[in-house]
Amino acid sequence: MGLEVIAHGGTRYAEIIRADVKVEKTTFFSPAESSFQFGLLAHEAGFVEPAHYHREFERPIKDLQQMFVVQRGIVAVQLFTDDGELLREVELKAGDAIVLIHGVHAIRVVEDMQCISVKQGPFLGDQYDKVFVSAKS
């Protein structure tokens, strides 16, 4: 199944890396200008990356993207257009990863699941993080 980009009207809503995707070298799938970089690190045995750090640099971020990797179970992710219409539902299994880039989303747990979740910080509290909407499914 590989890499999937879910787009609508020229806007990226999500990127999915399936567990079976293999790359020969480190590959990022997000556009360079994206505030959240999503990709796979790949090196041959024996590779050593020199000790380093990442420069502190102020990066203005207006959007809040969320990425998660399914460790176990099955979860269905629903993506909605800006008009609230269901754009697509994707089912993710262990090893699959998704970055939610734009728009309204919902999850439905199909089998008991556990995911690693990553979002930009700082965390400002639940009252600022989520806006619940009435989506059309």
Word description of this protein:
- Helix content is 3%, strand content 44%.
- The protein is mainly beta.
- The protein has one domain: Jelly Rolls (Sandwich).
- The strands form two sheets. Strands 1, 2, 5, 6, 7 and 8 form a six-stranded antiparallel beta sheet that branches.
- Strand 5 (66-80) and strand 6 form a beta hairpin.
- It starts with a strand and ends in an 8-residue tail after the last helix.
- The model has no long low-confidence stretch (mean pLDDT 89).
In short:
Helix content is 3%, strand content 44%. With 137 residues, it is mainly β. A hairpin with a 2-residue loop joins β1 (3-8) and β2.
CATH classification, class level? Mainly Beta
CATH architecture tag: Sandwich
Q: What is the count of β-strands?
A: 8
* Largest sheet data: 6 strands, antiparallel
Percent helix, as a range, is: under 10%
Notable characteristics:
single chain, 137 residues, mainly beta, Jelly Rolls, six-stranded antiparallel β-sheet, two-stranded antiparallel sheet, 1 helix, 8 strands, globular
Topology:
Blueprint: E1 3-8, E2 11-17, E3 27-28, E4 39-40, E5 66-80, E6 86-93, E7 97-100, E8 104-119, H1 126-129
Antiparallel strand pairs: 1-2, 2-7, 3-4, 5-6, 5-7, 5-8
